[in-house]
Design a protein that fits this description.
By secondary structure, the chain is mainly alpha-helical. The protein is about 65% helix and about 5% strand. The chain is built from 10 helices and 3 strands. It has helices spanning about 10-15, 20-30, 45-50, 55-65, 95-130, 140-150, 160-170, 175-180, 180-190, 195-240; strands at about 40-45, 70-75, 80-85. It has a 3-stranded antiparallel beta sheet with strand order 1-3-2. α1 crosses α2 (about 20-30). Mean pLDDT is about 75; it is low at about 90-95.
C-alpha cells in the first residue's frame, strides 16, 4: 500500500507550529477540492485516517486555530464542519497559548509512546535473560554501556583485539600501536577522561603514526645533503695527502 504524504508551507509552520500548520493546510487543501461548497464536511473516522492525531489532540488544535481566527468548526454527531472565514479570537486564552498547549499534548503522546516501547524492550530483555539463566547481573545492556562511558581509564588498560585489528587494516604495525599505550594511559589518567577509550586510542595511534612517517621523511630528505658534505671533506683530505704529484 502506498503511504500518504502530508505537506505544509514552511512559513505557516514557523508561524503556528508544525501540528497546527499541518492541520490547517490539509483542511484548506481538501476544501479546495470542492470549492462550490461553503463548508468542508469530514467524519471523525476520516480525520483519524487522514491525519496523524488522535481525537483529543485534534480537538485542541481545532480550538487553537479557532481562537486564532483562522477557521470555524462545528460538530454534529460524528461529523465536523469547517469553514475558513476569519473571526475574532476568544478572550479566554491567547492563540499562542492554545497552539503551545496543543503542541505540548502531541509531544507528550510521543514521549508516552517511547516510554511504552522502552518498557516493552525491557520486559523482552528480562525474559531473554531469564531464559538463558543469566542471573548474575540485573543491568540492561544500555546500563552497562552507560557505566563504561562514565569510567576513567584503568592503569592496566589495554586496547582490545578489535582495536588493534582496525589499526592493522590501516597499515599501522601492532608493535607501534602497543608502544603508544603507556603515554595514552598516562595522558587520560591526568586528564580524568571518561569513557570511549577504544576510539580515542585509535585516533591517538593514527596521529602518532603520521608524526612518525613525517619525521622519517624529513630525515630521508636531509640525509643526501649530509652525505654530499662528507664526500666533499673526504675529497679535500685525499688531495692534501696525495703525494703522487
Amino acid at each position: 500500500m502506498t503511504e500518504q504524504w502530508l505537506t505544509l508551507p514552511l512559513s505557516l509552520a514557523r508561524q503556528l507550529g508544525v501540528e497546527a500548520a499541518l492541520l490547517l493546510h490539509q483542511l484548506q487543501q481538501w476544501h479546495a477540492l470542492s470549492p462550490q461548497q461553503n463548508q468542508l464536511r469530514l467524519s471523525e473516522s476520516e480525520l483519524a485516517h487522514r491525519l496523524p492525531f488522535d481525537l483529543e489532540t485534534l480537538a485542541d488544535l481545532i480550538e487553537a486555530l479557532e481562537d486564532a481566527g483562522l477557521l470555524q468548526c462545528s460538530q454534529h454527531q460524528s461529523y465536523y464542519y469547517f469553514s475558513f472565514e476569519a473571526r475574532q479570537a476568544k478572550a479566554s486564552l491567547s492563540a499562542n497559548e492554545r497552539l503551545q498547549q496543543a503542541v505540548a499534548n502531541s509531544a507528550q503522546q510521543i514521549r508516552n509512546a517511547a516510554r511504552s516501547r522502552n518498557r516493552q524492550d525491557w520486559a523482552t530483555w528480562q525474559q531473554s535473560s531469564s531464559e538463558s539463566n543469566d542471573e548474575g547481573s540485573t543491568d540492561t545492556p544500555e546500563d552497562s554501556a552507560h557505566a563504561k562511558r562514565n569510567e576513567t581509564i584503568a592503569e592496566d588498560w589495554q586496547p582490545s583485539a578489535t582495536t588493534l585489528t582496525m589499526l592493522s587494516h590501516q597499515q599501522i604495525p601492532q608493535a607501534f600501536a602497543l608502544a603508544q599505550r603507556d603515554a595514552f594511559v598516562m595522558w587520560h589518567l591526568e586528564k580524568g577522561t571518561l569513557g570511549g577509550f577504544e576510539s580515542r586510542f585509535i585516533s591517538w595511534v593514527k596521529r602518532g603514526w603520521v608524526d612518525e612517517q613525517q619525521q622519517q621523511q624529513r630525515n630521508t630528505a636531509t640525509e643526501p645533503n649530509h652525505r654530499s658534505e662528507r664526500e666533499r671533506v673526504r675529497a679535500r683530505l685525499d688531495d692534501i695527502f696525495d703525494t703522487d704529484w
